[in-house]
Write a structure and sequence with these properties.
Blueprint lengths: L10 E7 L2 E7 L5 E11 L5 H11 L9 H10 L4 E9 L2 E11 L10 H14 L3 E2 L2 E2 L1 H16 L5 H13 L13 H4 L4 H14 L2 E7 L3 H11 L23 E6 L5 E8 L8 H13 L5 H9 L5 E7 L4 E8 L4 H16 L5 H17 L4 H14 L5 H9 L3 H8 L3 E9 L2
Parallel strand pairs: 2-8, 9-13
Antiparallel strand pairs: 1-2, 3-5, 3-8, 4-5, 6-7, 10-12, 10-13, 11-12
Helix pairs in contact: 1-4, 1-7, 3-8, 9-12, 9-15, 10-11, 11-15, 12-14
GO molecular function: metal ion binding
Pfam families: Peptidase_M16_C
InterPro entries: Metalloenz_LuxS/M16, MPP/UQCRC_Complex, Peptidase_M16_C
Length: about 425
């Protein structure tokens, strides 16, 4: 292990072996430490549902803690430690995360091995699952398949997020990004205790792994974690394909989905064609903030406040895929008018009609949002994981400084590069 002195909040790669990279974030800002383990796969129809099922089944029990209750009781013994796991996607990466948050050793009433005990539990859950006849327990797999199907089917309950997700999925229907991170109900129906266990071996042995140790650790505790990770039997490590960002649009298309809704959802998707490791990304951040990043933005002030066309309206970036989406909740009858006002804001951006208030407030909004990341260990870890995936090495302060250097002309240039791809309308009519 590298012997380095870290300043507060700085991240450092301390070990790399067998496709596993270990990073340490040294900070004494919190009374808890956290260990995050991320497995990375290419987002694919073939594996999406299985990858989503794995953490759900693994959390049900291990050899030494065969039930959820056993795990919960042990977490209580660790002064109320918190364990969680799940899947997400960043660009066209599907990421399976395991996470444990626990009190720092120095606050644990003389307990000197709390970090080791906490990691032992996390390691046990990931590497030593409870089995039956050499495969996963059928009962656990069937129950988690039912839960996962219900989760997928419940997407429609949050109409705001559903509208955004569907717009982006329609845009990217022939690309890996168009795959929902939890897969499909149809694919879940094909999962058995046998083929899921085979997939688990592939997952544990071949997927790249990033481990983040965050908090007040000494080298002895970090070394213990590294030595334990070296016990995992690994073989040829899978190569993760880069996310394809560039795609140009000749003509935007319109998609209408009908559902029983009282309030229509209008989502407009765009291709930015900007890589997350490009210097243009900081310009895009400011462009998005001016356009729809808060109550100071053009969309909020003009679509919602001045014209009363929306209950809510915002724009959001998908950093890793180079996408942007505008989302608005509107009266069904106001669709065309709301769309016109939205397009007017896009044109104003292209023409440089940006007030001092909009420009300065947008920079301040980004600065406030990034500084707030430091208040959460989970957000600090996610920020640093995102830097690795993006191929950048920015600290939060680096991003703030780069955004502050963006000029009005930079924003105008970005505005003239963005291409409308899809207009998605969720309505009852």
């Amino acid at each position: 292990m590298a012997n380095n002195v870290l300043s507060d909040g700085q991240v450092l790669e301390v070990a790399s072996f067998n496709g596993i990279k270990v990073y340490q974030i040294k900070t004494d800002r919190f009374k808890t430490n956290s260990i995050n383990v991320f497995f990375h796969d290419n987002l694919s129809r073939e594996n999406a549902s299985k990858n989503a099922m794995l953490p759900a089944v693994l959390r049900r029990g291990s050899v030494n803690f065969p039930t959820i209750q056993d795990i919960s009781l042990y977490l209580e013994e660790l002064y109320g430690a918190t364990f969680d796991c799940g899947v997400t996607k960043k660009g066209e990466n599907q990421i399976i995360q395991f996470y444990l948050d626990f009190i720092c050793d120095k606050y644990a009433s003389g307990e000197t091995d709390l970090t080791k005990k906490a990691f032992d539990l996390l390691f046990e859950i990931i590497t030593n699952p409870v089995t039956e006849n050499g495969v996963f327990k059928r009962e656990y797999v069937q129950q988690e398949a039912k839960n996962l199907k219900e989760l997928i089917e419940s997407r429609v309950n949050d109409k705001v997020q559903y509208g955004v997700d569907k717009c982006l999925e329609v845009m990217c229907e022939n690309e890996p990004f168009g795959i929902f991170e939890y897969g499909t109900v149809e694919d879940i129906d094909t999962i058995t205790e046998n083929n899921l266990y085979e997939h688990y071996k592939y997952f544990l042995e071949t997927l790249p792994v990033y481990v983040f140790i965050s908090g007040d650790f000494n080298d002895d505790k970090t070394g213990y974690i590294i030595d334990k990770l070296k016990q995992i039997n690994r073989r040829e490590i899978k190569k993760i394909q880069p996310t394809n960002v560039e795609k140009h649009v000749s003509q935007a298309r319109e998609v209408v989905e009908r559902m029983n809704v009282n309030q229509a959802k209008l989502s407009v998707g765009f291709r930015t064609n900007i890589e997350p490791n490009s210097e243009n990304y900081y310009k895009l951040m400011l462009y998005n903030s001016i356009l729809g990043g808060g109550i100071h933005s053009k969309l909020f002030q003009n679509v919602r406040e001045k014209n009363g066309m929306a209950y809510y309206v915002f724009s959001r970036l998908e950093k890793f895929k180079g996408l942007m989406v505008i989302s608005a909740g509107i009266e069904i009858s106001n669709k065309d008018k709301a769309y016109e006002v939205i397009v007017k804001q896009l044109e104003d951006m292209k023409n440089g009609n940006i007030s001092d208030y909009e420009f300065e407030s947008s920079i301040k909004s980004i600065e406030t949002g990034i500084k707030s990341l430091k208040d959460s260990q989970l957000q600090i870890v996610d920020f640093n994981l995102s830097q690795i995936i993006a191929g950048t090495k920015d600290s939060p302060d680096d991003i703030i400084e780069k955004v502050k250097k963006v000029s009005r002309q930079d924003v105008i240039d970005i505005a003239n590069c963005i291409e409308m791809d899809t207009v998605y309308f969720l309505t009852s009519m």
